[in-house]
Q: What sequence folds into this?
């Protein structure tokens, strides 16, 4: 679950990380009202998930209420687009923030390092730009520090990082507090990523998180149920929404460009099925992992979800049962094809593993003959799709 | 021999009275695993049927400590729901269990961060994994036992169902297996490819290893490096799932920094090539690659 900048900053403030003064405006009127009451120079920042919003025209500067009226009207409802986000994203709210005089820009983030099984802190004195680009062009400018979760983030680590990343002296006093706050957000809310880019040193010597990027682990959101209210705030990924709507895990379904629908159990076999289709000269229309222990009803709903994509010309259901039982999958397939409102496409079923005998009997009774191997199933499905 | 699991392993099931827990307990018993009981808080003192047709019973305990005291259990398999899985792992660790297989899918990543940092003396397989099997000896997991056959090929995999796929191919081609470990697909897992490879390197019964990886992360690159340095005498063959997946679907921003160019199929292919490990384009090619590396077929009759 990705958070918007204003949401991330709310978590930052709770953890004591300084952020610019401002307000989250959900309408032009709210924006204008705020600037009227608080005269000064303000930045209007479009609240979107996509990166590169500045270059896409999503950030404006206003010195008074009249300008705010004009610029906010321009931004609300505007669809921001760039190379990485060709479909664009609509601006639904603005963060109105004080304009700060920048002395220096740094970068700080914490993410999970799978290899060491530890949180890793990444710091760079070159903030304000794409950090991946910095890593590529100036790998020496990036400093990493792994935190033992049994110990937590300590001030000495922050001091060490500030020195080794060559952060300007102005950062040194505030950095341990910023890092402690960042680690607090990371652990308290179960984040996969917390990132401040840029971490600004102002002309007046303050250290402020000028941007906030927070990605939470969906599996852990239940521990902070109040955050669920933020879930609907952002534009949900269509594939994720569709998956959740039928009871699948959020990342268990992804629409792709091909014309052969796929359903498999397990992410590995799901990907393997896509690969097998490509090896057979075809292209998968989707990835769908029905997960472990899927019941008949879910199989039916998955079938309908995949075939709701008009591109789908054939379907390959590839099941190797472990925790998933073949009979349940077979029942789901038979059930899915019963209704008149179902879009029927040429179907290839491969069913083996746990309860495969029972599953095959159910399919046979309905006049279906499953294939024996994945390669064979993929080949058949490709033939069907080519007509 | 085999790694991590053999005929002498005494196994308890945490969450034994649940639907999946009981179903797979009975399948593990049927496979020949020494299941000595189970744990469900509040149901201590009761029993569950040892087999689907009602032959025999297994004792249920309130706590893992009770179960270990009464049975001498060495291994546990965990079927409890995600919010309680970390607690189940801590309880197993506290009771002196040496090895925990965690099947549960959907455990918060931060729960696992803390568990692996604080329970280092207990080997954890998973979570979100299919478990492991030493064919002909014992199965602790949810794998369909009939596809496995005893032999000399070690197998490690990030995916459950792809493991079955590949093992099925191996068995049908005459390559039995020493131990197959599904390490799990979550961001934080207890046992990595490298851990398994280290164990296989020291297992005289394992003559060759099949590594079944996936796109993303850097486990495969780490495995390739380890193989090159530490398994000179054991031929290895690899498979990478998801090579046709479009780029950038799930790879995060700062995550990409840590792994640099790691995570792409190209990076994994290059790493295996550098380690002299052939990579199969499809599971059905793996037996041929083993033969080309002079691995002899072996199906041990137990």
A:
């Amino acid at each position: 679950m990705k958070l918007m900048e204003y949401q991330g900053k709310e978590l930052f403030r709770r953890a004591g990380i300084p952020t610019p003064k401002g307000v989250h405006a959900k309408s032009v009127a709210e924006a204008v009202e705020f600037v009227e009451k608080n005269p000064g120079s303000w930045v209007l920042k479009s609240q979107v998930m996509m990166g590169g919003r500045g270059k896409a025209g999503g950030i404006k500067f206003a010195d008074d209420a009249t300008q705010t009226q004009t610029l906010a009207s321009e931004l609300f409802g505007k669809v921001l687009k760039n190379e990485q986000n060709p479909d664009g994203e609509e601006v639904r709210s603005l963060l109105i923030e004080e304009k700060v005089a920048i002395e220096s820009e740094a970068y700080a983030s914490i993410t999970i390092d799978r290899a060491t099984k530890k949180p890793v802190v990444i710091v760079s004195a070159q903030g304000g730009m794409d950090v991946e680009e910095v890593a590529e062009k100036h790998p020496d400018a990036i400093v990493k520090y792994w935190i033992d979760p049994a110990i937590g983030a300590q001030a000495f680590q922050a001091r060490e990082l500030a020195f080794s990343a060559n952060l300007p002296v102005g950062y040194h006093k505030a950095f341990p507090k910023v890092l402690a706050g960042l680690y607090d957000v990371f652990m308290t809310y179960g984040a996969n990523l917390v990132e401040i880019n840029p971490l600004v040193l102002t002309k007046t010597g303050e250290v402020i998180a000028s941007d906030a990027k927070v990605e939470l682990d969906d599996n852990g959101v239940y521990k902070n149920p109040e955050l669920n209210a933020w879930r609907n705030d952002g534009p949900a990924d269509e594939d994720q929404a569709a998956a959740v709507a039928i009871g699948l895990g959020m990342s268990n379904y992804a629409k792709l460009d091909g014309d052969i629908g796929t359903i498999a159990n397990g992410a590995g076999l799901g990907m393997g099925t896509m690969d097998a289709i490509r090896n057979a000269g075809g292209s998968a229309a989707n990835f769908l992992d029905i997960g472990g222990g899927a019941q008949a009803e879910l199989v039916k709903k998955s079938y309908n979800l995949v075939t709701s994509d008009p591109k789908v010309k054939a379907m390959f259901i590839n099941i190797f049962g472990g925790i998933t039982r073949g009979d349940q999958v077979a029942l789901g397939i038979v059930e899915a094809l019963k209704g008149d409102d179902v879009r029927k496409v040429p179907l290839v079923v491969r069913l083996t593993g746990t309860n495969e005998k029972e599953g095959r009997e159910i399919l046979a009774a309905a006049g279906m003959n499953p294939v024996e191997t994945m390669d064979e199933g993929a080949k058949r499905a490709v033939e069907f799709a080519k007509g | 021999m085999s790694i991590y699991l053999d005929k002498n392993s005494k196994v308890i099931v945490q969450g034994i009275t649940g639907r999946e827990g009981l179903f797979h307990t009975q399948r593990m018993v049927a496979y020949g695993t020494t299941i000595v009981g189970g744990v469900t808080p509040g149901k201590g003192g009761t029993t569950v049927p040892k087999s689907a047709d009602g032959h025999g019973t297994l004792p249920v305990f309130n706590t893992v400590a009770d179960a270990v005291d009464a049975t001498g259990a060495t291994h546990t398999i965990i079927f409890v729901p995600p919010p309680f899985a970390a607690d189940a792992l801590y309880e197993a660790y506290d009771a002196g269990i040496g090895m925990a297989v965690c099947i549960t899918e959907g455990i918060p990543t931060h729960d696992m961060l803390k568990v692996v940092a604080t329970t280092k003396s207990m080997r954890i397989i998973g979570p979100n994994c299919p478990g492991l099997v030493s064919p002909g000896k014992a199965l602790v997991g949810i794998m369909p036992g009939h596809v496995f056959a005893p032999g000399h090929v070690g197998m490690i995999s990030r995916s459950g169902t792809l493991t079955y796929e590949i093992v099925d191919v191996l068995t049908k081609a005459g390559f039995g297996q020493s131990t197959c470990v599904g390490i799990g697909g979550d961001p934080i897992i207890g046992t990595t490819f490298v851990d398994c490879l280290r164990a296989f390197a020291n297992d005289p019964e394992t003559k060759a290893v099949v590594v079944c990886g996936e796109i993303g992360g850097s486990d495969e690159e780490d495995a390739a490096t380890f193989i090159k340095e530490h398994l000179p005498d054991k031929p290895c063959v690899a498979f990478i799932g998801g090579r046709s997946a479009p780029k950038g679907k799930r790879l995060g921003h700062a995550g990409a920094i840590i792994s640099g160019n790691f995570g792409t199929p190209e990076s994994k292919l290059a790493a295996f090539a550098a380690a002299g490990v052939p990579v199969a384009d499809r599971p059905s090619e793996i037996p041929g690659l083993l033969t080309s590396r002079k691995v002899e077929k072996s199906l041990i009759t137990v």
